[in-house]
Write a structure and sequence with these properties.
mainly beta; 7-stranded antiparallel sheet; Pnp Oxidase, Chain A; single chain; about 40% strand; 3-stranded antiparallel sheet; about 190 residues
Length: about 190
């Protein structure tokens, strides 16, 4: 199969579409972020890439805490809205029902099935974006998204972003069981 060169490009899928929250001037504000991912399991850490001019970053750096809220596909209009309009000009504090967990400086979104309270442990300038590494200090999961005492990805139904198509997707069907299907593979000796 022929391969087409695209030059340096980020083509890691799936790319989450998450809502990052912070208090900015004592008001909750949320921004849509696609550059986000797991960074460490112990202690649990997450990364977000955010442009320095973004309004929400002001609150993150002032308070050194933020939230990562995982929206379901049913919130796609609100998620897209938060990515289009800046909190500098649009008050986004009333878009969602906000709650606070352990840290009263971290606004969380009740409508999102997963919410993570994070404290900033590192920042690094990387060109167009500032990388923020946050330690997850608490995770909240909606009760109706739990099966057998664990978070259920199908019930969470997270929103996924495809940058090049500029589209949102949901999860597809389960393909195989992890740490199991690979045991069926056998390497043939030549």
């Amino acid at each position: 199969m022929e391969k087409i060169k695209f030059g340096p490009d980020n083509l890691i899928y799936p790319m989450p579409a998450v809502l990052v929250g912070a208090l900015v001037d004592d008001k909750p504000n949320f921004i849509t972020i696609a550059w986000s991912g797991t960074a460490c399991s112990n202690p649990p850490m997450i990364t977000i890439g955010i442009r320095p001019e973004r309004y929400t970053l002001k609150g993150i750096l002032e308070n050194m805490v933020f939230s990562v809220n995982v929206p379901s596909i049913g919130l796609v209009k609100k998620v897209d809205f938060c990515g289009i309009f800046s909190g500098k000009k649009t008050d986004k504090s009333e878009i969602f029902k906000v709650f606070y967990g352990n840290n009263k400086n971290i606004p969380l979104i009740e409508e999102c099935p997963v919410n993570m309270e994070c404290k900033v442990v590192h920042t690094k300038e990387l060109g167009t974006h500032l990388l923020v590494v946050g330690e997850i200090t608490e995770t909240h999961v909606s009760g109706d998204c739990i099966t057998d005492n664990i978070p259920d990805a199908k019930k969470i139904n997270p929103l996924i972003y495809a940058a090049h198509q500029m589209c949102y997707y949901g999860l597809g069907k389960k393909n195989a069981k992890a740490f199991s299907i690979g045991k069926e593979y056998r390497i043939e000796k030549l």
